[in-house]
Amino acid sequence: MIRVQRVMRVPTGIAKLDEMLGGGLPKGSTTLVAGGPGTGKTILAAQFIYSGATKYGEKGVYVIFGESAETFKNNMLSLGWDFGELQEKRQVEILDLISLREPESVETTFDEIVETARVLGAKRLVIDSITALTVVFRDVAEIRTLISVLQKVLRGLDCTTILITEVPWGSNRLGMGIEEFISDGIIVLEMVSRRNQLRRRLMVLKMRATELNLKYYQYEITKNIGIDVLPYPEAEE
């Protein structure tokens, strides 16, 4: 008799999304959250870290490229999430790595992420975003090397990880088309026009060890809740 090992799950804190995932993200997995401007990628990732610290007793590291930690914390306060307080309590660490000036600094950057997660005892990690991390690289070969190194770094951490990537308006490609190959899961966030209104919708495109229905679900962004996925998939049109 073959015994199937049960996959441990890490809840995101987004009730309907966790239901769709059979309880949450697979423990130790790397999930790519891809979307265009205004879709709420950072909010989803922040909700994952904030819920981990406040609901599930899991410490988290939020790595920021592209904006300052103070800007991030102020934006999250507008949702009712006090990341400054979580920092003071040593439940969350925010790494402000605004930009890389040269490819040679990547190794030092990764070492800082690993050491911060180790010292804190983090179980959750967010990198926001892969797109901003790779701006100093000149060609696809260098980016592939970076992604390969990042994959090895993440495998060595005892963390469940979310990577954020940008999807340009009008593009069907997820980020640079490379990140998806190191990910155990892909969550796509979109804004679409329906009857002269923009609506947000989400699909879990891929997730290791998870049965998926591959349907779009609408979601809203509200204060003190964050991402709130509506209970039923979009109707066929």
Architecture blueprint of SSEs:
Layout lengths: L8 E2 L4 H6 L4 E2 L3 E6 L5 H15 L4 E5 L4 H9 L5 H6 L3 E5 L9 H15 L3 E5 L1 H4 L6 H16 L4 E7 L18 E10 L2 E11 L9 E6 L3 E8 L4
Parallel strand pairs: 3-7, 3-8, 4-5, 4-6, 6-7
Antiparallel strand pairs: 1-2, 8-9, 9-10, 10-11
Structural features, described:
This protein is α/β, with parallel strands linked by helices. It has helices spanning 15-20, 41-55, 69-77, 83-88, 106-120, 130-133, 140-155, and strands at 9-10, 25-26, 30-35, 60-64, 92-96, 124-128, 160-166, 185-194, 197-207, 217-222, 226-233. The strands form 2 sheets. The chain has a 9-stranded mixed sheet, with helices on both faces. The chain has a two-stranded antiparallel sheet with strand order 1-2. The protein is globular, with a radius of gyration of 17 Å.
Could you list some keywords that capture this structure?
alpha/beta, 9-stranded mixed beta sheet, 30% helix, two-stranded antiparallel sheet, 237 residues, single chain, 11 strands, 28% strand
Low-confidence stretches: none
Describe the strand arrangement of the main beta sheet, using strand numbers: 5-4-6-7-3-8-9-10-11
Summing up helix and strand content along with how strands pair, one would put the structural category as alpha/beta
Number of helices: 7
Short description:
It contains seven helices and eleven strands. With 237 residues, the protein is of the alpha/beta class. The longest helix is centred in the middle third of the chain and has 16 residues, at 140-155.
